[in-house]
Amino acid sequence: MMFTVQYKTVNTINSKNETVLITGASSGLGARTAQLLVDRGYRVAGAARRIDLVKKMPNVVPIHLDLTDEASISDAAQEVEAECGPIGVLINDAGYGEFGSIEETPIAQARRQFDVNVFGLASLTQRVMGPMREAGRGRIVNVSSLAGEFSSPLGGWYHASKFALEALSDSLRAELRPFGIDVTVVQPGPVRTAWHEEAMRSLEASSGDGPYRDMAAAVANYHRRIQGKSITSDVDSVAAVLVEAATTEHPRTRYRVGRGSSTAVAISRLPDRMFDAMTRSQFGIQ
Predict the structure, then answer these.
(1) Average pLDDT in the 105-130 region?
(2) Rounded to an integer, what distance in angstroms lies between the CA atom of residue 126 and that of residue 142?
(3) What is the pLDDT of residue 193?
């Protein structure tokens, strides 16, 4: 038996009347992306826990958001709709890196990593996708990472959260296409922000003094060293990709950002033992 599935045409997000909600807007990549969108004429709501920093950003509507709190997520979406109108674009940028050995990282901290990077993100996305579906159009941009393509020592919980986000994004893309909603993923490599130093502080707090201390020192040294290397992107270049993913007529399903990013993913497809050996050499660990 043959049958035909009919799809709605995915709508272009090119109207300057669109409201864009971006999370993690208080600093770094989120803040720069919010400002670029404002400069292009979009109505932008910037959501973050540190709302005082968002209030300093010209023409960005500040929205308090705690992704570990369901009430805060619901209130934030309602506030955006009341202040700015229906949400046409959601950019899920908020997130952080919980680093440390899997053995030494308390499960409570691992759970919080997923609460922010996966479950809180998913809850906010659920809240906005219903109105988008009813409107027959919308755009969801999930900021993942190359860490969602392969894993490395002492970053297991962070990598796991990004692997989960990649899978959710793939399912969402298929589920929402019939309703005119595009889902796209942006996968930055290292970026010059405070994110890395915060992640390394969590690494040292969890594993800096225990049986993994030598490995932790090597991994932290690597991450700090590459901040000055060409493989690390500046905030402006990554923010420009986020703006493209959010507004272009025909977005890619994935945007890999950073010098050597596609090569890194290709290398990760090598046999496991070979990739493990290359990773140990890269980080300078035994």
Answers:
(1) 97
(2) 13
(3) 85
Q: Are 183 and 176 in contact (CB under 8 A)?
A: yes
Residue 210 belongs to a domain: no
Give the pLDDT of residue 166: 98
pLDDT at 232: 85
Write phi, then psi, for 279 (nearest 5 degrees): -65, -45
**What CATH number does the domain containing 251 carry?**
3.40.50.720
φ, ψ of residue 131 in degrees (nearest 5) = -60, -35
Instruction: For residue 165, give both structure tokens.
Output: 């986000």
Provide the domain count of the chain: 1
Distance CA 137, CA 8 (A): 9
Decide if 84 contacts 68 (C-beta within 8 A): no
Query: Nearest CA to 141 among 5, 18, 9?
Result: 18
Question: Is 272 inside a domain boundary?
Answer: no
Q: Is residue 227 part of a domain?
A: no
Q: What are phi and psi of 165, to 5 degrees?
A: -65, -40
CA distance 101 to 255: 29
User: Does the residue 24 lie in any domain?
Assistant: yes
**186: closest CA among 123, 118, 261?**
261
Q: Is 170 buried (19+), middle (13-18) or exposed (0-12) by CB count in 10 A?
A: middle
Q: For the whole model, what pTM was predicted?
A: 0.92
pLDDT of 5-44, one tens digit each?
Answer: 343 434 445 556 789 999 999 999 999 999 999 999 999 9
Q: Which residues are catalytic?
A: 158
Q: Which domain holds residue 64?
A: 19-191+233-257
